[in-house]
Amino acid sequence: MFGGSFFFSGVAVGELPPLTIVVSRVGLAAIALHIFVRLNGISFLTYGKHWRDFAGMGLLNNAIPFSLIVWGQTHIASGLASILNATTPIFTVVVAHYLISDERMTANRVIGVLLGFGGVAIMIGPELLTGLGEDLLAQLAILGAALSYGFASVFGRRFKRLGVPPVVVATGQVTASTLILLPLCLWAEQPWTLPLPGTGTILSVIALALLSTAFAYILFFRILAAAGATNLSLVTLLVPVSAVLLGMLVLGESLDVTHFIGMGVIALGLTAIDGRAITVLTGGKSAVAE
Question: Residue 106 — φ and ψ, nearest 5°?
């Protein structure tokens, strides 16, 4: 789901400005999730007292990173953006180490994150790295988004303690981010003055909202509650993998040897950070058994 966001955004930035894309994404997602919550018999207003938490999550997990990434993609290639975004686990490991007592940094996690990032770089290919010194602000914007995601993963753990269902958290955060960004979008980009975009762009924005936001964040908060901030952040290492698969299915692209090598290195990184396979192989007690 998250891998598709780079694919769909890459289509949309050809005709729409960044904030218009982001507001359309979170706004449509908010409408869809409010309908979903209502159909499931949940009263969103019951959790209205947590509006500050929803606003904080919306800012860290939507408003800031979505805007930075989409703006960055107007200046650099989506592949390079996905490599830079794959630094999210690195930031999350560091942020979680200092802010969460039960997610301290370990050698396995550091090694695993570095392996995962290396696998992403291998799979995308060295040709994209040749432009690393260009469009510095755009690249810093993607790194800023990755850092924001790292803080969001840690901040979002509070909702389990507060007893807020994952679907309500998802609804609250996209609603808050819509309210935060809408006035800025109307002032800065005046979207009503833009020409009507093509069918491909409209469908891409709808897919961004429903697949890569509404449905993806329902899964996001379920996994956050079950697996923790660091494990959740590993999704960014799989974003380029899904981008390659989308290219195969939609654009007729093919995999080469470097893609398979990169996927293998990513798998090793995920295994190292998770740690359970290493525990079993070294004769320790399995975390699954515990």
Answer: -125, 165
Q: Six-digit token pair at 40?
A: 């499931």
Q: What is the pLDDT of residue 203?
A: 95
Q: Which two tokens stand for residue 192?
A: 């009503």
Are 9 and 220 within 8 A, CB to CB? no
CB atoms within 10 A of CB 46: 10
pLDDT in tens, 71-123: 988 887 776 777 778 778 778 878 888 887 766 777 887 888 888 778 877 87
| Residues 6+ away with beta carbon under 8 Å from 100 | 154, 157, 229
DSSP letter for each residue of 182-212: HHHHHHHT-GGGSPPPPHHHHHHHHHHHIII
**Could you tell me if 54 and 173 are in contact, meaning their C-beta atoms sit under 8 angstroms apart?**
yes
Q: Are 44 and 120 in contact (CB under 8 A)?
A: no
pLDDT in tens, 45-70: 999 899 999 999 999 999 999 999 99
